[in-house]
Amino acid sequence: MKKQAIKSSILDVTPFIPSDKALAGSAVPDLAMQLSQLSAKLSGQLALPTVQTLEAYMRVINSYYSNLIEGNATQPHEIRAAQRGDYFTDAAKRDLQEESLGHMAVQQWLQSQSPTIEQVFSPAFILEVHRQFYTSMPERLCLIKNSQGDVVGKVVPGAWREQAVAVGVHIPPESESIAALMKSFAETYNPQRFVGDRKLIAIMAAHHRFAWLHPFLDGNGRVGRLITDAALKAVGLDSCGAWCLSRGLANKNGDYKRFLAMADLPRQGDYDGRGQLSEKGLLAFCEYMLATAIDQVGYMSSLLDLSHLRQRMDAYVQARNDRRVRALDKDLKPVAGLILHTAFIYGEISRAQALELCGMPERSARRLLSQLKNEGLLSETSTKSPLRWEIPEHAEPWYFPDLAPLI
Question: CA 20 to 30 Å from 363, out of 137, 157, 263, 344?
Answer without folding.
Answer: 344
